[in-house]
Amino acid sequence: MQTAVIGQPDESKNNVPYTGPIIDMHLHAYHADANGPPPLPFCVPISTMIQHFDPKDTWMEVVMKASENPNCEGLLLSPETDEELIKQTVGQLQKHNITAVLSGEVDFLPDWLKAAPNRFIPSLKFSLPADEMPIDSLEAIIKANNIKVIGEIGNQYHGIAANDPGMDKYWELAVKLDIPVAVHLGSGPPGAPYLGFPNYRVKFSNPLQLEEVLNKYSGLRMSVMHYGEPFIDEMIAMMYTYPQLYVDLGGIMWTYPKAYFYEYHLKKMVLAGYGKRIMFGSDSMNWPGLIGKSIDIINEAPFLSLAQKEDIFYNNAARFLRLEIKK
Ligand SMILES: [Zn+2]
3-state class of 324 per DSSP? Predict the structure, then answer.
């Protein structure tokens, strides 16, 4: 039997889909109307949905118009109620045998957890400045709600860099509680500053901004959500220097055309030798169909061996989360 060597794709097994259990590191507990009034159509990949824009128009209106007249194969429609969104999401988790790290607000997580207690790992959504709170309050919330991950930490959407000193006390708490953190670094929706995130900044996607944090808090267990795309070289440099650092794929497989995602993002990280620290993440929000789509795109990557897929879909997340490996 041939075994995959780190960084060396095993082309002999590249057409075998992975069908075992999956850990989705990046699932959102959203309300049905979180992205606008449902049902909302959604086309992927999103980078090519609107290919040019004249600033005489308003970006928000152009986006809304485009979603009124969707023109794509495999159109996804968002469920109309919270109950239906939860039900369809759980249906996807069951169909694909997924355990998902579920990022949400503490008041809404229980609605999801009770729908499928064994399918979710509760994760606390956190962003400054809105979630600024005394450290003992955050500790109490984490303990009272059995929170296993702090994330998605969405400071970038609010113009706050990963190394902002305002986060120090929270990093300290994460180390003290030995709880992993998951930080958003990467692109938001196209035209994010014109879609309700006026302080979103591209420059804060850069993983180099984590350097002081990882240096100062060497016990911190951190995953970079969306792997700081498209700053791949910077991400690889950070994974090289900070061997504790993991990444999740966070929906980027359906953000860009998959040939680009494969060739310049996923393949590059795998070839650099980091196939043991890349974790699957669907970034499913209001469209549960994104979960199956995300799985298919990883399974269809022509350069991944079955062993590498198994690492990405399950083993790496199980190790990062320190779960008991069930297989
Ligand atoms: Zn994100």
Answer: coil
SS3 308: helix
DSSP classification of residue 151: E
Asked if 9 and 308 count as a contact pair (C-beta separation under 8 A), the reply is: yes
Contact residues for 60 (Cβ-Cβ < 8 A; gap 6+): 194, 195
CA of 127 from ligand 1 middle (Å) equals 11
Q: Which residues pair with 247 in a beta bridge?
A: 224, 278
Q: What residue type is assigned to position 122 of the chain? A: P
What's the CATH code, domain 20-31+81-320?
Answer: 3.20.20.140
| Ligand 1: centre distance to CA 11 (Å) | 32
Q: Is the pLDDT of residue 12 over 70?
A: no
Cα atoms found within 13 Å of the Cα of residue 188, Cβ hemisphere only: 22
Query: Is the per-residue pLDDT at 10 higher than 60?
Result: no
Per-residue pLDDT tens for 120-151? 999 999 999 999 999 999 999 999 999 999 99
